[in-house]
Write a structure and sequence with these properties.
TPR_rpt; mainly alpha; Serine Threonine Protein Phosphatase 5, Tetratricopeptide repeat; BBS8; TTC8 protein; 27 helices; 0% strand; TPR repeat; TPR-like_helical_dom_sf; 517 residues
Length: 517
């Protein structure tokens, strides 16, 4: 019987698949699978039943498919209980856990805010940028709230759907394939079916162990000559946390076939093992084989940015734009770099470019508002922030906009408005350390010392990586004569930002005072 427009049903299903209508494709395949399985497809060794089965597995996989390369979330357990520690005290510039300070000519923390791991805030949010690498368990549980959830990030949140739930999403009658009853050896000997089945088990069912068993049997059947299976085994090992085994598989696959994806997977392994220099060398090898490949150049830029080498990162992002002038991440990162280098007019050009490309969200209008303010284009500033508030999708974004409006209010000298803005920031996001700090400064100006101290203590406990609250506590304590508390706070400030001149002067004064005693 013919389907829609008189098409043969299997061709109809394939047409749906090509047009990314995966639900309709799976439904047509289900109808075909209910028929008697004897019909042989012309010019093919497969029956209609096998073809429909294969197509349905691919359609179900595509519904929940997440690209493994960008989907890299390090959970609390992976960060704190990391058994792959190579060196506890790494040489400067060779570890992501201890990024070098100011070695790449980037702005200091006084100008460009840093994350809790000591890295400057980037211009583009990626899974790994917000969480950072917390130094204590308490800090890990408190801060990294990526994926916009209230709980700290774990490797289960975000991209990986928990086993069993994907089949409920895509197949209301229960799982399409009962994995426990599959004869994996039989499927491993049919390469065309095996590849579709592997992706189904890995992405749809999220059953890494069975996927690994199938891949091992299939690569054995292919006499270890198929690079694709080696990459898949590497992906399974990576998910299971066996990084050295994954590295061997990816290297073996690269010997057989140069593929950009394999370079990216192998670099992910090195970054997880905290070996950024090895990852950089690997990307550069990749660029020799694939000159001008955007993802590889972008990978180099990201690593330099994570290692606080801002000038090198900016150069590589410019190389990305030479190859692909609509690359959102590169434009955003170069824009933020110009903004923090005191060139808001140039940053404005990059953000306007994003707007012309069709990026239309709260973050962009927020950045446009700040650039306009610092470039003294005051007519555009408030309208940009109004648009940002209108486009905000959650309370965190609203809090960011109100915080920046508070800065604008301080800039024009309206301190009452600034106070209101910072309070609105805290209404939307109660953990906003910067807003607590700035409110405390405003309270200090009014002479409310105790309120200011309480606000500063809240800020310093929420963000121990920021030097401003510690320094402000030190100054406040010194004014009221509590020199011991002032000294301990100043030491914390120096730890967070060693080159801060005011902190060093305060410590020097306090030491002289203690010496006199």
């Amino acid at each position: 019987p013919a389907g829609e427009m008189g098409l043969e049903p299997l061709f109809q299903a394939w047409s749906y698949f090509r047009r990314r209508k995966f639900r309709e494709c799976a439904d047509v395949c289900s109808q075909l699978l209910e028929r008697p399985p004897g019909e042989q497809e012309l010019d093919s060794e497969y029956t209609v039943f096998q073809a429909a089965w294969s197509l349905k597995t691919r359609a179900l996989t595509e519904m929940v498919y997440v690209d493994e390369i960008d989907m890299d979330q390090e959970g609390i357990a992976e960060m704190i209980l990391d058994e792959n520690a190579v060196a506890q005290v790494a040489r400067p510039g060779t570890s992501l856990k201890l990024p070098g300070t100011g070695q790449g000519g980037g702005p200091s923390p006084a100008v460009r805010p840093v994350t809790q791991s000591g890295r400057p805030i980037t211009g583009f949010v990626r899974p790994s940028t917000q969480g950072g690498r917390p130094s204590t368990m308490e800090q890990a549980i408190k801060t990294p709230r990526t994926a916009l959830t209230a709980r700290p990030i774990t490797s289960a949140s975000g991209g990986y759907i928990r086993p069993g739930t994907a089949s409920m999403l895509t197949n209301p009658d229960g799982p399409f394939i009962n994995l426990s009853r599959l004869n994996l050896t039989k499927y491993a000997q049919k390469p065309k079916l095996a590849k579709a089945l592997f992706e189904y088990i890995f992405h749809h069912e999220n059953d890494v162990k069975n996927a690994l068993d199938l891949a091992a049997l299939a690569t054995e059947h292919a006499q270890f000559k198929d690079w694709w299976w080696k990459v898949q085994i590497g992906k399974c090992y990576y998910r299971l946390g066996l990084y050295r085994e994954a590295e061997k598989q990816f290297k073996s696959a690269l010997k057989q076939q140069d593929m950009v994806d394999t370079f990216l997977y192998l670099a992910k392994v090195y970054l997880r093992l905290d070996q950024p220099v090895t990852a950089l060398n690997l990307f550069k090898q990749g660029l020799e084989r694939f000159p001008g490949e955007v993802t590889l150049i972008c990978g180099i830029a990201r690593i330099y940015e994570e290692m606080n080498n801002i000038s090198s990162a900016a150069e590589y992002y410019k190389d990305v734009l030479k190859q692909d002038n609509t690359h959102v991440e590169a434009i955003a990162c170069i824009g933020s770099n110009h903004f923090y280098s005191d060139q808001p007019e140039i940053a404005l050009r990059f953000y306007r470019r994003l707007l012309q490309m069709g990026v239309y969200n709260c973050q962009l209008f927020n950045n446009l508002g700040l650039c306009c303010f610092y470039a003294q284009q005051y007519d555009m500033t408030l309208s940009s922030f109004e648009r940002a508030l209108f486009l905000a999708e959650n309370e965190e974004e609203t809090a960011d906009v109100w915080y920046n409006l508070g800065h604008v209010a301080v800039g024009i000298g309206d301190l009452n408005l600034a106070c209101q803005c910072f309070k609105l920031t805290l209404v939307n996001n109660n953990d906003y350390a910067e807003a607590y700090n700035n409110l405390a400064v405003l309270e200090m100006r009014k002479g409310h010392t105790e309120q200011a101290r309480a606000l500063l203590q809240t800020a310093s406990s929420l963000a121990p990586h920021m030097y401003e609250p510690h320094f402000n506590i030190a100054i406040l304590s010194e004014k009221v004569g509590d020199l011991q508390r002032s000294y301990t706070a100043a030491q914390k400030s120096e730890e967070a930002f060693p080159d801060h001149v005011d902190t060093q002067q305060l410590l020097k004064q306090l030491k002289e005072h203690f010496a006199m005693l």
